Amino acid sequence: MRVLIVEDEIMAQRSLSRTLESRYPQMQVVGCTRSVAGTVDWLREHSSENGAGMHGGWTQESGVDVIFMDVELEDGDCFEIFRQVDIRAKVIMTTAYDSYAIKAFEAGSVDYLLKPISPEDLDRAVNRVTRDSRGAQDFSQVLQALESGKQKERFIVRMNDRIVPVKIEDIAYFYSEEKSNFLRTFDGKKYIVDSSLDIIAGELQPKTFFRISRSCIVSIKAIQSIVKQAGGRLLIVSEPAADFEMTVSRSRVDDFMVWIAQ
Fold first, then answer.
1. Whose CA is closest to 8, among 214, 154, 162?
2. Spatial CA neighbour of 20 closest among 9, 8, 32
3. pLDDT digits (tens, 9 = 90+) for 98-137
4. Contact at 8 Å (CB) between 21 and 5?
5. Which element (helix H / strand E) includes 66?
6. Over the stretch 151-193, which tens digit does the pLDDT of each residue have?
7. CB count, 10 Å around CB of 234?
8. Distance CA 134, CA 128 (A)
9. How far apart, in whole angstroms, are the C-alpha atoms of residue 230 and residue 99?
């Protein structure tokens, strides 16, 4: 069985590749990708037949048999891949968080593994995908579950002995600092949040919020201006002003420019 690994962490990518090829002789790792764009390109390049898919994109026929796919990639979440390519391979999702995505996987009967991946869980997933004689998985149910269930209306934060509800429309940006995650409201208030940015990113309306880097998610309403910097990065001037350098990662600049112009 030909395997594609979609994982943005190089060490995790190599570890999974070594484990698959050493434990499961029937599996051959034929490719590794780290991003949404890179995965879409790989699938299109290795498809035996390219044509219009059900989403108006491309259909991936037989370039690979099994895909191990991480949810959070370096340029966005993996679900954008399914919006661009109709994948005919069997897919096993991997995620570090028991997040909103899990319900979507279950809605679409998609296999998933929680990181760190245990040998027992990996054995079960490989055995299922090896024995499964069904055709291609229907990811339309996964995408529908994501769209209907991931957006929150408010975040619940704690201030000393008080619990404070903060409406989404009042939030200017989220960011990570010294191993903690925070949100800042448009009136300048700062609150610590319990969820990781990976989980938060999946709970926000993508037309309003954009993850500009691993450490920051910004609302389009908070952006006052954008300054081009050396090396292809962009500096965001926000209101309220950030007490850190709010920059768009190079790998996300193209998607950011499309988002900001919509």
1. 214
2. 32
3. 555 666 566 555 678 888 888 999 999 899 888 876 655 6
4. no
5. strand 66-70
6. 678 898 988 888 899 999 999 999 999 889 999 999 999 999 9
7. 19
8. 11
9. 36
